[in-house]
Specification:
Belongs to the glycosyl hydrolase 28 family. The protein has a domain of 184 residues: Pectate Lyase C-like, CATH 2.160.20.10. It contains four helices and 29 strands. A hairpin with a 2-residue loop joins strand 1 and strand 2.
């Protein structure tokens, strides 16, 4: 006996129902899209609409399963594919958009708002994950927003005071992707980090807007770790921690035209806390503006590092500081806790680091702080002009830095 394909069974069933009950009854009770969601096509590109998979977008009902079902269909399709999240507010818990995908390219197009659940019992370490995908674009339209609803969770964050703290979920994690573009997205009120990049190759973040209150704990804007070929440009970050932080094992990082403030500034690190950390090399940061931040450009490494590593070949240039506490800072005695041992120097070697054309105002007298553990190698300050508006003017403070000074220098170099 011949077995009919499932699609044919669906079509014939619909025909029989139509004959028995009338076409109007069928249209009122069931649609083909509800039984078998199909993509629409425009210029040969397949588009999968999340609402055809049961997403309601009303801000109340849980759309987690619907969005993951839509992703599964788009990811499993051939050719160039778009997953469309149309206007609306989509309330979702932990959601994984994982590959590998059959699609040659896949675009996650957000036209509405993704709103996080607030019950921490539902979460692991992350809220939204894009992972193991090649040639992925995550793009926003119509003021697309990712809302972590972090205010309810911030009181439970003990990480600023305890080493053994439970880490709250990051809003969006990109892990093990290749050739990724993220653009035109706004992230607000993350529970922990807004965006984290882990083990990615060739990822660009363009025109990202990040907002959280100045007192929100550990809400780093963009954190980079064990990634190579990262580009961040034309972005504004206002948050309660580092605007951008570059963690261990990262290489070939290019950051340009980023506005930071409030926040803790732009950081390389912290480095040297854990066993087996990878080196950080080839970092180029340029054309940034810092307004009212705790730090400007900072390199921070832990004392008492369990293993040795290298942080090298970095250029920070064309920076504007406006009322920044520590415009230029190297801190190899980093420890944010009340009780720090200070027994050993950092195991991270700093080498070939240049600060060039750094100008503006400092809110504290020490505008340049170079506190190295073992002597830093090849630190260069070129054309630095940082003014303290209080009495006595700005000054420099150095320890094991052995820096080279080129061009105009204000404050005066360390003796």
């Amino acid at each position: 006996m011949e077995v009919w394909p499932p699609l044919l069974v669906v079509i014939l069933t619909l025909c029989v129902v139509s004959l028995c009950c009338g076409l109007e009854a069928v249209a009122e009770n069931v649609t083909v899209a509800q039984l078998l969601p199909m993509p629409s096509y425009h210029r040969g590109l397949a588009t999968y609409n999340a609402k055809n998979f049961g997403a309601e977008g009303n801000g109340t009902n849980d759309d987690t399963k619907a969005l993951m079902a839509a992703w599964k269909a788009a990811c499993g399709a051939s050719g160039k594919v778009t997953l469309l999240i149309p206007p609306g507010t989509y309330y979702i818990g932990p959601t994984q958009f994982h590959g590998p995908c059959k699609a040659s390219t896949i675009t996650f197009l957000l036209q509405g708002t993704l709103k996080a659940a607030t019950d921490l019992k539902r979460f692991g370490k992350d809220w939204i994950e894009f992972g193991w995908v090649k040639d992925l674009t995550v793009a926003g339209q119509n003021n697309a927003i990712i809302n972590g609803q972090g205010a309810a969770s911030w009181p439970f964050n003990m990480c600023p005071i305890r080493k053994d703290c439970k880490v709250l979920p990051t809003s969006v994690l990109f892990v093990n992707n290749q050739n990724t573009v993220v653009r035109d997205i706004t992230s607000v009120n993350s529970k922990f980090f807004h965006i984290a990049l882990l083990q990615n190759k060739n990822i660009k973040l363009i025109n990202i807007q990040i907002n959280a209150p100045e007192n929100s704990p550990n809400t780093d804007g963009i954190h980079i770790e064990r990634s190579t070929g990262v580009v961040i440009s034309d972005t504004r970050i206002s948050t309660g921690d580092d605007c951008i932080s570059i963690g261990q094992g990262s290489n070939n990082i290019d950051i340009a035209r980023v506005h930071c403030g409030p926040g803790h500034g732009m950081s390389v690190g912290s480095l040297g806390r854990y066993v087996g950390e990878g080196d950080v090399t080839r970092v180029h940061v340029r054309d940034m503006t810092f307004v009212g931040t705790m730090n400007g450009v900072r390199i921070k490494t832990w004392e008492n590092s369990p293993t040795k590593s290298l942080a090298a070949h970095m250029l920070f240039e064309n920076m504007v500081m406006k009322d920044v506490q520590n415009p230029i800072i190297i801190d190899q005695k980093y420890c944010p806790y009340y009780d720090c041992e200070h027994k050993h120097v950092s195991g991270v070697t700093l080498k070939d680091i240049t600060f060039k054309n750094i100008k503006g105002t400092s809110s504290m007298p020490v505008a340049v702080l170079l506190r190295c553990g073992v002597p830093c190698q090849g630190v260069v300050l070129q054309d630095v002009d940082l003014k303290y508006m209080g009495e006595g003017g700005s000054s420099s403070k150095c320890e094991n830095a052995m820096a080279t000074y080129v061009g105009y220098q204000h404050p005066e170099p360390c003796a």
